[in-house]
Specification:
This protein is α/β, with parallel strands linked by helices and about 500 residues long. The protein is built from seven helices and 31 strands. It has two domains: about 150 residues, no CATH class; about 300 residues, 4-Layer Sandwich (Purple Acid Phosphatase, chain A, domain 2), CATH 3.60.21. Helices cover about 15% and strands about 35% of the residues. Strands 13, 14, 17, 18, 25, 26 and 27 form a seven-stranded mixed β-sheet that branches.
Length: about 500
Amino acid sequence: MKAGIAAVLCAGAILYILWHSGFFLPRWIIWDECSFGTEDGQYGISLAQKEVRVRYDGVLVWSSPSDVKVQAAMSQDIDADGREELLLLCWKHGRYGSHKPFWVEKDERRWSQHLFVYAYGEGEIRPKWMSSYIGQNISRMSVQAAESGKCRLWLTEPDGEETCWSWDSWGFVKEETEVTFTVFGDNLIHEPIYSYGLAHRGDFGFLFENFEDVIAQSDVAVINQETPLTDDPARYSGYPRFGTPLAVGEAIADADFDVVTCATNHALDQGRSGAEETKAFFEAQDILCLGIGSREEPEEKPYKILTRNGIRVALFNYTYGINGMETSGQDFQGVYLLEKEEQIKRDMREAKETADMLVVFVHWGTEGAAEPDDFQQKWAQIFMEGKADAVVGTHPHTLQLCTVLQDDSGHEMLVYYSIGNFISAQPEKTCVRGGMASFTIGLSPEGSRITSYSLQPLEIRWHEGGMYQTDYAVFSTDDRPLYLRLDLRPE
């Protein structure tokens, strides 16, 4: 009897020792062993047998706590304060440290995974931040430098899923790692369209009311404003010299678009003053206006950098031409044209130094053509050489090929050669189909890339008898088309 009790106690003691030593921790854990030092050379750090030791000028000054099993370690300036910190991915008993939430009566005893951050002192190591249970299984961690000067901490789960974290004032916070773009084609405001809006209290909100959810769900919503804006009713006009009521711009702002592209062949239909008025209006609405230079900033770069979810995207906008209009003048930068190939590639390389991704919006091609022409193919190759990641084309007023190109280095570039019209009064059958381009930029430890893309068809339907309707079909999650119908019969 006594021997049996002794055996049970002995077995229990062995199990406790094994459990306490971490013998029953998950088998997917990769226990790193490494040695490294701080950049100033004062500290040397070694990780072996789940324990970290720190030496200062060769003298051992600190060891990780005996009740903590260290899986991985690194030294990085995680908070961009100019001083490195010691970062440990480790395991300990319980989900909390010395302080637990007031609603937790008793901490657990089982092992859980944590992030510990220590600050280097003069010959000492001080606790800086000790996380509670991470809440996910982490097989490895890595650090990526960010443009802000801080580091992105990437945590990889056993199944390969990655999450990104950055240092806030009090500790690590999880970052979003995707940016979604939705791009609409030519907003081509012919006379029947603006006459309809003016006859309905001058409110052009009808243009976008069926797209409110789509725009709201996008991180970046873009539209090509084909025609210049004006607040002078005497200058309202349609083809061939467009002048679009400012109320159309107000509808774009009210719809919460983030970006308008204005480098089109009609950009100077109302002269330089019309282009400047268009740019000034959108900028006053806190909307990025691409493709038009600034009077106030003669050295302005031909691109803008937009930051969403920690991802910096350089946005370019060019047009093949401006219908022969004059752009010269010391006080006007003009409209950005597809002219100086080497300068454009230099601008793209410069933008790439500070941006994660390059997106080009370009007005090019042959009107009414179903396929890209030689000019489009040529400039697509130039953009590829400039390492653009996505190109969205307008101007042909038709839907054209959407594809992914790849160069010899493996760099990929998504190209929408033409997404057609968003709205117009063009009667040609080839111009009745447009598209809504959507793509997602994803961030990973290796960098940024296009992770998904689509092209949603939109259609303009004509009716006989001098009256026509414009139908925009946007497909909801249950695949039922939603239509916006406009009776554009002249008053």
